[in-house]
Each structure stands twice: as C-alpha cells, then as structure tokens.
Write a structure and sequence with these properties.
Shape of chain A: globular
Oligomer: heterotrimer
Order of helices and strands of chain A: EEEHHHHHEEHHHHHHHHEEEHHHHEEH
Helix content of chain A: 40-55%
Mean pLDDT of chain C: 85
Structural class of chain C: alpha+beta
Largest sheet of chain A: 3 strands, antiparallel
CATH class of chain A: Mainly Alpha
Distance between the termini of chain A: 38 Å
CATH class of the largest domain in chain C: Alpha Beta
Largest sheet of chain C: 3 strands, antiparallel
CATH architecture of chain A: Orthogonal Bundle
Distance between the termini of chain C: 57 Å
Radius of gyration of chain C: 20 Å
Low-confidence stretches of chain C: none
Strand order of the largest sheet of chain C: 2-3-5
Radius of gyration of chain A: 22 Å
Number of domains of chain C: 2
Largest interface: A-B, 33 and 31 residues
Chains: A alpha+beta (420), B mainly alpha (330), C alpha+beta (130)
Number of domains of chain A: 1
Helix content of chain C: 10-25%
Mean pLDDT of chain A: 84
Shape of chain C: elongated
Number of strands of chain A: 10
CATH topology of the largest domain in chain C: Alpha-Beta Plaits
CATH architecture of the largest domain in chain C: 2-Layer Sandwich
Low-confidence stretches of chain A: 411-420
Number of strands of chain C: 5
Amino acid sequence: MAEAENTFRIPIGPIHPALKEPIRLSFQVEGERIVGVEIRTGFAHRGIEYMGMRRNLIQVLYLAERICGICSISHPIALTQAVEQAAGIEVPPRAQYIRVIISELERIHSHLLWAGVAAHELGFDTLLHLTWKVREKVLDILEELTGNRINYAIPIYGGVRRDIAPDQHPKVQDTIRYYRGLLDELLDTFLRDPSVEARTRGVGVLEPEEADALCAVGPTARASGLAKDVRQDRPYLAYGELGVKAITPRDWGLEPRGDVYDKIVVRLLEVGQSLDLIERALLEMPDGEITSFPKIPALLAHLKKAHGEGLGWHEAPRGEVIHYVRLEAGVEEPVVWKVKAPTYSNLMSWEPMFEGQEIADIPIIAASIDPCICCMDRVHMVRDGSEATMHKEELLRLSREKTRRITDHGSRITGLGGVR
Amino acid sequence: MSGVHLVWQAAAVMVGSGVVGLVYKGLDRKLAARMQARVGPPLRQPFLDLGKLLMKETVVPRDAVGWLFSAMPFLAAVASFTALLYLPWGPFPPILRGYGDAVLVLYLLAVPALAMALGGFASGSPLATVGGQREIVMLMSYEFPLAVALVGVVWRLRALEVGPAFSLATISANPLWTAVGPLGVFGLAILLGCLLVVTPAELSKIPFDIPEAETEIAGGLMVEYSGTYLALFYLADAVKTVAMAALVVTLFIPYGIAAPLGVKGVGGQVLDVAFFLVKVFVVMFAAVTTVRVAMARFKVDQVVRGFWLQITAAAVAGLVLLVLDKAVMG
Amino acid sequence: MILKILFSQLFTRPATNRFPAKYMPKSVTGFLGKIQSGKTKLVPPVPVPPRFRGRIAYDRDKCIGCQLCIRVCPAKVIQFRPEVKKIRMHVTRCTFCAQCVDACPVDALAVSDQFLLADPDRSAESLTVE
C-alpha cells in the first residue's frame, strides 16, 4: 500500500478494545476517513483439526464444541452429520427435532449476545446490559435442558444425549412467551432509536453483488438482500419439515441496503423466527428413541469399522458452517477433519465494508459480521520463525497436489448425495 | 480583602470542589449503573481510583515530547480548579470576583480540553493523535453555542442595568426568569436547553466522548497517560463536571432556598450551600448521567454538523427572542 | 422509550446476583471467618436446575475398572489406578460434558450439582475424585 503524503496508519489489534478476539487490522487513514485496510489473521490458531486427528471420534465431538464458545452446538451438529454420513448412521426423528430446538435456542442466545456487543461498540452500554440481561433467560433454559449453560454436549453420533422431558415443555414455552413479549421492545429500542440509527444507517455497506462475489454467508449476506440460508437451501435434520425461509430486511418492510442497520434488523428478526421454529418443533416432535446407539461401546465399535467420507453442514448463527471428515476402517481417529467456519467466508467482506468509512465506524463494522476469529483461524504459516504468506497460485498448486495424492490413495468420493 | 483570607478561602474551595467532584463522580457512576440494572461501584470508588492511580508508576513514552506531555495534566487540573474560584457557591459570591468575569470562566473551561489535546499530540501515539484532532474539532463546534447562551443572559441583564453584567456575582444575584416577559422566558428556556446539550460535549461524556472513544481508539487522548498524570486528568474531569454544572446553575437557576423559608444567619448560608449542591447534582444527573446511559456515541462529523447547524440555530433563536423581549418590555 | 426503561430500572433491584457478597470484602479470610461464625450471610448463588452437570460423583464400590470412561473422556481427566483397578479424576481438567456418565456400564458415575470448585491448589482434595 502506497504511503500518501497526508495519510497515516492506525493499528487496530491484535489486542484492542474494539476486538473481542485477536486479529490485526491496519488502517490507512486520511484524517478520519479510511482509505485502505490490511487484515492479518492467525493469532488465535489452536491446531484443533490436528488435535482432532489424534483423538477418537467421541473425543473429537467435544473438541468441535470448543471451536467456538458461542456456536457451541453448530460445530457438533455439522460434525455429527458428517460422521453419520461417513459411517452410515441413521438419526431418529425425535433426536433431529431436539437438535433443532437446541440449535435454535443457541441462535437466540448468539444473536442477543451480538446485539449487546454491537451496542457496546456504538458506545451504547445500556443496550448491552439490557440485551445481556434478557439473554440470561435463554441460557437458563439451555441449562435446564442440557445441564450446561454453554458447551451443551447434546448431540452425539446417531442422536442426542438428553431427551426433552414432558415436564420441561412448559418451561420452554414460558421462555418463548417471555421473548415474544420482549422482542417488540428490543426491536423498538434498537431500530427506532435515533442515535443507533445515526450510527448504523449507511455504515459498512455491502452491496449484494459484492456479498455474492465474496461468498458472504449468514446474516451478513442476508442483510444485503441475498435470501441465502442453509436451512432453506439445503434442508437437513428436521428443518425440511419445519420449513425455513431466509430472513432479509424485506421482512421488516425495508429495501435491503446491506449496512449495519440491516444486519441488526436481520439478526433481531431471526430471534423471532427461531422462537417460531422452537414452538413448532416442540409441538410436532414425534415420540421415539433419541439415539440409535444407546450403548457407547457399540457406538465406538461401529465408528471404528466405518469407512468413508462425510460432509456435514449447519446454519450457525453467523452463517454456514461445514465439516468434512474421512474415516478409515480400523482407525479410531478421523483421518481427515476439515472445518470451515462462517467467519472464514465473511472475513473478505470486511474490505468493501471498511472502504471510505470513518475511524469511528471501525468497531461496529468489524462487529457487524459477528466475527469469530478463533473459529476462523484454521491455518497459520510460520516457517523458520518467519511468517509466510500463501498466495492464491501457491494454494491452488498445493490443493491440486493434495487432490492427486488423495485420489492416488485409492479412495472415491462417496456418500455425498446432494452435494454439487 | 486580605491576602491571607483569600488564600484560605481559595484552599477551602479547592479541597471542597475536589471532594464534591469525586463524590458526584461516584454518584454518577452508581446511578448510571442502577439505570442499567447493575449494582455499580461503591460511592467511594472514585477516591479509591484516585488513590490507586497516585500509587502507580507514571510512564512517559519514548516518542513523547516529554515536557509538554508532563505539563498538560497539571495545566488541566489547575484550570479546572481555577474556574471554580470564579464561580459563586450558593450564597457566597465568587472568591476571585473583581479579577475576572464570565468570559474568563469560558476560557478556563476550554483549557482542560486543549491541554488534553496537546498532551495527546505530545504522546506520539497515533490513537492519541486521532483523539487530539477530534477534541479540537469538538472544541470548535461547541464553543459557539456555549458563548451565545452566555452572551444572551449577559446582554439581557445589561439591559436591566443592575450592575456589571459580565460579573458572575451580578448574574447569580439577579435571576432573569422573573425579570423578562413571556418571550424572554421562552428564549431563556431555549438557551438553557442549548447549554444542557453543550454540557456533556464540554465534559467529553457519551454521546460526545469521541476524543476518548474506548471501543474506537482505545481511550484516545488518554491512551499513553498513566499514574499521577492520569490521576490529575481524572481529578480535572471530576472538578470540571462540577464547574460546568455550577455554571449552568449560576446562569439559569441562581435561586436560594434560605430566604423563602425564612432561615437567617449561618443556618441559612449552610442551607443555601446545600441547596446549591443539590442543584448542581440535578443538572449533572440530567445533562450527564441520564444522557450518557440513554444514547450511543456520535461520530465527530455528526457532532460538528449538529452543533453548527441545529444547536447554533437554536441558540441564536433564543438570543433573538431575548432581543425581541427587550424591545417589547422596553 | 429507552428513558422509560432506564428510570424503571433505576427504581428496581439490579439484575445482578450479588454472589458471594455485594462488594469485595476488605479481607477474604476475615469475610469467610465471619460467615462461619454467623456474623454475615453469604449471598447464595443462582440455583441450578435438577439435571445440572456439576462435578462428577464417583461410586467406588460399583466401579469395575473397565476404563471405558477413560476412552471417551475428551479432556483426559481420568487416571487409571492399576493397583486397585479403580479410577482417579482430576476435576481441574474436567469440561463437564458428562460423557463418562453416559459411558459407564454400571452407573458408578453420576453428575452432581456442585460447581463452586475454585481452589488455588489444583491437586486439592476437593478437586480430586477417587
């Protein structure tokens, strides 16, 4: 980046109050205006995939849960689907509904958490405290249903580990009623507050064409008007029966502009959508088994025999998450485990969003994609103590080499039914 | 008045205002916390903070312009305290009356902001530089409506011919609300509103805390300050809050409570001082505490536009109403 | 709108649970002593639901030493004691997923409601289950 005469450089991160996780954004600014940004990642790389390939699949499940503390059911759901596909395990319908209920509860908790963080980035701490106060209720119900407030440890290959007992239904319905009553108030305090609107309208705009070209996912893409939702486009679990429609600002009666305001709109409306989904799932949930492998030794034995590949996906609160696993017969550990977190897809949209904005907009734009850096940091290159950057050409060459290596190895890509 | 007497009084005001400033800061934090459904820190927390800061090491960054960096905290604290010497404390006229008037108070209130900006520039940090630029821009935008509000009151007072109009002693002794007609009351109300809007800007509080903007520039101006220097800025901020609220009280609500209640002598004076402190608190609660919990931080260009267009227009309208009132009342 | 919320919150009890005390006591040991002698009361923590996953409870007599829990434990909490064919759990490492409870064939393991487990010593008695 050329250093112009009257520009100077503002470093944001790796440690900075605007960032909840380490990433480095180096801004080239002209007065208050941003003319360029450089993003450097890799500060939160933990080598989780490598660790996973050295553990048996049940242990990997809990490692996957810890990829992200907020979407702590999204990763296990994607992983269990991948493994179930690879090992040919059926999931009982009741278990599918329970997974949907827990993951929609998680979406509520994640979106409320995000709304609070966004308000804090705007300097509006009252809204932070308000949303986090009401978020307690969904954490309480998660604790009631799963035993844990975070890292619920609910899905397991072939089903779920805990049933929703009849006496818990009224508590869940209570929670739904609580949030229904609250949602209007929240929409009002966020979307009709003049100072919030002044700070978010026209800020961090992501045009639909850009969102499409940069493969943005989740609320980031939906705020730009792309009706893109894995639950709608490629239904899995019970989502096909429940029927999900991607939410865009049009549902709030606004033409999507792709700015931060629209992202607030989409996330808050999705809380309402999740409430509907939970309510319906609770009513329509069939009776039956909650897992096809009630005994752990049987599950372990089945997984050890399994051979094949699997791809699992899920619409996490932040967007689409994909897990890929390859199992080999006689090996307890997954031979390959690859994770693609939503932030990985959304990070690229930062650049057009930052362009031409002001320094004051940095925190809210950075927060608007709801970044989860530690989910995203899957690769970090350090060679001989110096950092190396991989460019597209080299990555392409490496991936071609790897494809050749894998295909020579003799395995066919199997069991990926509907995946193009 | 003898020199010794003056020094004694000044020392009393300084210590008193320091204590009041810190107590009010504690109240502000406690009440803000309660409005956000939090427990909040204990009332004495600002004293603990100050004590702790004074114990900490004071670091001067290598890239800083040392003398400027070190001098600015003192300048800010001294200016804030001095402003209070020119303001009346309830029934007591300003200690330094005769040495300066309302315009001087305006200057003294601008000095801490300037000192912070200079100190920020001198620290050599890019974040502080951004903060410094923002502080200067803010200063330029809110000073005009502030001055208009002050001039409006003074000009109307001058027309009443009750003494030196710019003297704060005169201003506080002659409440304007009852002396003007209905147009004038309306104009005064507008000016009071403008002044209340300017107050959080003058004090760099949300929604106008852009020079410090914690989530954007990590504390901005203050980012490199630590230990004793930070303690001085902290104290200056507490005292300036009282000074600014006291200025609002003096200009617009200079009423005493002792005379209407018929309490005379020392008891009356104590009552009046207490009432003055209550008024200062009410102004602070309305213009600082409530506002800072009820709003998001603005951007600097929004602030400049707001102050130069809307607030200035409102202030000038208030002034025009006062002029018309004079014409009507004769 | 927001003002209405603010002022109603100003006059209601804060949402914060003041566990274990409203403010940091001057001396923690003094505070604990006062509680023991009954001079002050501890603000109780938020109650936990019935199937809360707290510290794992271990029934030694039921344990058959099959080591299945060791195989499934994601955090390597459990150590096998070959001399007695029983297990020892290091609670500091525990992630409270309770997978070992599900895996145990003889129900020797169970979840408890204990979660106040902080201790400066990681090998303290309260943090070792055997």
